[in-house]
Amino acid sequence: MDCLPWCFRVLPCVPWTNNLMSEVAAHKKFHCPSCGGESHWNPAKKALVCPFCGCESPAEISADGEIKEHDLSATLRNVGDEQRGWDTERKSVKCQSCQAITAFDPTRSAQRCDFCGSASIIPIEEQSRAIRPESLLEFKIAETVVRDSIRAWYRSRWFAPKKLGTAALTDTVHGIYIPYWTFDAQVAADWTATSGDYYYETESYTDSQGKRQTRQVRKVRWYPSSGHLDHFFDDELVAATRGVNNELLHKVEPFPTTSDLKPYNPGFLSGWVVEQYQIDLVAAAGQARLTMDAKLEKLCAQQVPGDTHKDLQVSPDYSAQTFKHILVPVWLVTYNYGRRNFQIVTNGYTGTIAGHYPKSWVKITLAILAVIAVIAIIALSVNRNSSKMKPANHPKELLELQPFH
């Protein structure tokens, strides 16, 4: 049993990357067998396609191999150089606006930051080498489908400014492989709690008119309880990105990492940008542990007998702790409106979309006025109907008959 906790007590620790955003381009070039140009992975055709002559070479991509789970404790103590880096020369630039670090093939010329669109970028020295991913989910959703989906998504945002609807937002869409850590663990947990059963007693009281009345009062009978839970956590995900909004990532999850992962092959990344992880293994393991602890407490709470409980204490024992470093595909749109920056994220494997967008105060004001008008009309209608239902009060006319003389 591995008793090493997932926290920051592991020393000495191997050097990790700093907390700046960095991206790396595809690690190897795949040359077109026809014209010799650099082929790019096309998710729609599931093949390497040359952008110059259109030649397809699907045979160059191989996903053979084993998806490995790595022992967490052993990896935290020692990560060899053979498991690091991208095996290719890189050129790095830093965005002066969002501080993102971008690393890519030296033949490429960076014009703008991929994450904020700023042109204020300066060359910097190469960053420390990161742990290499061993598995990934390939891009399945084509760019044309993503563009149409984003347009439809934006049209459904009623409070979005009309002016933004005419902007060419989808012109900025680009695909990025972003890093995730996944964690597995077997947990044996003992728990103790104070359980409570509801029961009712009849009590007498004096009401506001001075009369004696009776009522049922709920009370709780408390007693100690305890139990045991065995649970296996499979692929607890921790996003290792700083460039993509985490709230939006959670909305486009899940990524089917337990079933559809493929062994890492640089061919899948040909022509795509890859973000280097910015949350290292130690920090990610700590986040995963907190998430597992919270889920474990809920699972134990479900076992507590009675109608209610308090003072739940869980004592977990973690073993078989393993992890994977993986890449998942997302399509990203980043745009500025006014002084604010917004993102739209699309799951590159399932097509799920989530995004932030500016709100039009004109539309919001009109909506509020419309609601007020509807309420006023309803109130006026109810008032008129109640007036019609009241009986008319006519004054009695007394007729006096005058005698004839």
Describe what this molecule looks like in 3D:
By secondary structure, this protein is an alpha+beta fold. The protein has one domain (22-195, 220-365). It is built from six helices and 16 strands. β15 and β16 (353-355) form a beta hairpin. The N and C termini lie far apart (127 Å). Residues 1-27 have low confidence and may be disordered.
Poorly predicted sequence stretches spanning 5 or more consecutive residues? 1-27
How far apart the termini lie comes to 127 Å
The secondary-structure element order is EEEEEHEEEEHHEEHEEHEEEH
In total, the number of strands is: 16
Approximate strand percentage? 25-35%
Mean pLDDT: 77
Q: Which structural class best describes the helix and strand composition?
A: alpha+beta
Which sheet architecture does the biggest sheet show? 10 strands, mixed
Taking all Cα atoms into account, the compactness measure Rg is 32 Å
- Shape type: flat
Percentage of residues assigned to helices: 10-25%
Taken together, the total number of domains comes to 1
The helix count comes to 6
Set out the fold topology:
Layout: E1 22-25, E2 30-31, E3 38-42, E4 47-49, E5 70-71, H1 72-77, E6 91-95, E7 101-104, E8 121-124, E9 135-136, H2 143-155, H3 162-165, E10 174-206, E11 212-239, H4 246-252, E12 262-263, E13 273-276, H5 281-303, E14 308-337, E15 340-347, E16 353-355, H6 361-389
Parallel strand pairs: 9-14, 10-13
Antiparallel strand pairs: 1-13, 2-3, 3-4, 5-14, 6-7, 6-8, 9-12, 10-11, 10-14, 14-15, 15-16
